[in-house]
């Protein structure tokens, strides 16, 4: 599964999120890691929450995706917002709405910068693929 944003994708998202400081922070981290989504996610998580001790062969990124799958994949509100955003990907309010929705729905301590990384990942691969892919992992 492609877990990397291209430089052009990061640039495009910067244009959309230029007035949303958590989004800018997430994009700075993504750029620093050459678009690597899991690495940017984990660095933001550690910055916000400290180091998390996980069992060997467990990834904080994959564990988080599995938890979020339970929250997001059956949520018609989130699905509707993703569809609306896909119709107008240059819309700052629609994208920030997705990020804020994720922060509000999840039972995890996710701040908006971390949620931005997750939302960009879901938008990149598509919500249906996200739901199916995380279901088997």
Descriptive account of the structure:
- This protein has 137 residues and is mainly alpha-helical.
- Helix content is 72%, strand content 0%.
- It has helices at residues 7-17, 21-32, 37-49, 60-72, 76-87, 92-105, 112-125, 127-135.
- The chain starts with 6 loop residues before the first helix and ends with a helix.
In short:
With 137 residues, the chain is mainly alpha-helical. Helices cover 72% and strands 0% of the residues.
What features would you highlight for this structure?
globular, mainly alpha, 72% helix, 8 helices, 137 residues
Q: Which structural class do the helices and strands define?
A: mainly alpha
- Span from first to last CA? 12 Å
Oligomer: single chain
Shape: globular
Radius of gyration in whole Å, from Cα?
14 Å
Total helical segments: 8
- Low-pLDDT parts are none
Number of strands: 0
The percent of residues in helical segments reads over 70%
Secondary-structure map:
Elements: H1 7-17, H2 21-32, H3 37-49, H4 60-72, H5 76-87, H6 92-105, H7 112-125, H8 127-135
Helix pairs in contact: 1-2, 2-3, 2-7, 3-7, 4-8, 5-6, 6-7
